[in-house]
Amino acid sequence: MNPLKKYFALLLAMVLCLGLTACSGSNDIIGADWRTWGITRDGGTITCGGEEISVLVCVNKMNATLYYDTEDQTPFGWVDYPITFGDDVWDLFKGIDFSDLNGDGDSDVTMWFDGDITLVWHWDAGSRSFEYQPDKSSTGDRRSPDEIYHELLERFYVLASDPGSNMDNVEDGEYGVLEAAQGLGDDALNGIGYLIKDLSDDGVPELVVGSLCEYGGEVYALYTLVGSESEPELVFEGWSRNSYTYVNAYVGGSSCFYNYGSRSTAESCQGVFTLSWNGQEQNWRRFYFTYAEDGDLDNVTLYTNTTGSWDPEESEVAHRTLDEYYELLSAPVVDRVISFWAIDCTESGLDLMPFSAWGDLVPDDGDAVPVLMGGALPFTNMETLQSENYEDGTYYYADVAEDGQVIVVNTVLPRDFLDDGQTLEDYLTGCALDLGEADTWSLQSVEKNEAYSVNMSYPVYILTYTTGRNEDTREWTVFAMDTDRYTYLYGFGVSIDAADDEMKSVYQDIFAGLYLSDGE
Fold this sequence. Notes:
By secondary structure, the chain is α+β, with helices and mostly antiparallel strands. The chain has helices at 4-18, 89-92, 145-161, 175-184, 188-191, 322-328, 333-341, 355-358, 424-435, 450-456, 501-512; strands spanning 42-48, 51-59, 63-68, 75-80, 93-97, 109-113, 117-124, 129-132, 192-197, 206-211, 218-226, 231-237, 242-251, 254-262, 268-275, 282-292, 300-305, 316-317, 353-354, 372-373, 382-389, 395-401, 406-414, 441-448, 460-467, 474-482, 486-495, 515-516. Strands 9, 10, 11, 12, 13, 14, 15, 16, 17, 18 and 19 form an eleven-stranded antiparallel beta sheet that branches.
């Protein structure tokens, strides 16, 4: 996914820390010029399409951004690392080169870091982006976020699959999963899942473990990577009496969470917070809690603060009434956030991968199949039609709305594209039509989407077709992508009565947020 928007909050934070320290070689540039902020590590000249472009380089933990060497901070492009660096990435960085490595006349990118690390990207003129070259790179002993989080995921998988065996050895961050697994019983692996995604917009992905939306959509634990070795650190954890829910609102560029807790029959709390720019702290927008003075349940006061504290001495009496506060508890989470915090959001919960799939997505040879993931679906009361995890690591998931109007399919299959006269468009069209499982169909449109293709680093086609007749007619809109090894399909089958412009907007929002969990 395009990471450029993430850097502005990060750059601003670095500016506040570094002040207006001039970069080496830029001492003659003063004032508001971003080049005086001290955030560039290197620079050079890129040749692209016969044009020579002067760029400056900002080196981050998970990627590097190339900016035009101008007073206005305008991005030219970026490169994503296959590994993650820690807080000392600037010290580890040794240099960058823009030589043409493949003889196509355009500059490529080579970066060097301590630890015998060399990373290489070739410029792709079609997508106008740099594509990583694993066979020309060496990553030393550095790991990807997925590899770093793997040990935690193994632990959570065991907790969810056999909670009774871990009662005497529960660590911080695990209680909510253990509690949920005991309640869900045999359905725990389907109801509890995980997501690895950057939720604080600092370029470093967090690990979220929680319940799937249809099982409540709560967050049981959230981790981020810290320190020079990028080790996982628990940011917060939730359980039944201290629950957290993600809401799809961005405040200051960061993800938003709702918290509800209770510590007695008369004392409870509600709060909304965002993650700090580095994902390591909770920035409370407003925290409310009820307090029984001297334990008197007939003398309860509503307090508020912006620290998340339960201490009345660190808070002030809220302007809201107790009746308003209690009335809010019966409303859905989204309505609570809109009413009490005036934050616009339309849905809650994250699109987690169930642990029932996680165990099967890591074949014995360790060559994991990347999973196509994205934002939470805006549909409520979804029911599972089919959930299959195959021995080769591929999968097929299909869900339907309670009223039957919408079917959602997410599947990956081994690549079967024969380059013998068949075009990629024809191949993906055939795969997409199979989702409709109909003998008759009418193809409406097939279009390669350049924006999605750039986001995914693979060609993406959007196809629309109809199946069935009369009142049984269903319109399918399918995101179809082919990698070097797998074919991914993410499709919506909507009854013709529900297929309108608003629904098309839903597709666009979901498709724009899709990404591969392990990236190929």
